[in-house]
Amino acid sequence: MRGCMAPVAVSALVLAAVGCGEAKQAPPKTMPISDVPPAFMETARKELPGVVFDEVWVKKDGTLEIRGKAKNGKVREVEIRPDGTVEEIE
Question: Are 54 and 67 in contact (CB under 8 A)?
């Protein structure tokens, strides 16, 4: 029985060291809040009034994730597609 377990143990160690082939994703890019197009900021303020926006993340597809804090301290975000339409509000 011991002879059968050795190949299994070696295979497990190889998979642990190498991984299962999942590609590592590049971290999202950030953008200065001052570089966000005015129309996008207007949309974000309209969708989340009272939120002070301070962070912008750019997704691979060009969608901007504009983040900020509400008066109660809760982090809120609005995702706006490159064509200016709202994708999601959190």
Answer: yes
- pTM greater than 0.85: no
Q: How many domains does the chain have?
A: 1
Domain of residue 66 covers 25-89
Q: Which amino acid is at 57?
A: W
Alpha-carbon Rg for the chain, nearest whole angstrom, is 22
Residues for the chain: how many in total? 90
- Does residue 36 belong to any structural domain of this protein? yes
Q: What is the tens place of the pLDDT at every residue in 7-45?
A: 554 555 455 555 555 566 667 799 999 999 999 999 999
Q: What is the DSSP string of 40-58?
A: HHHHHHHHSTT-EEEEEEE
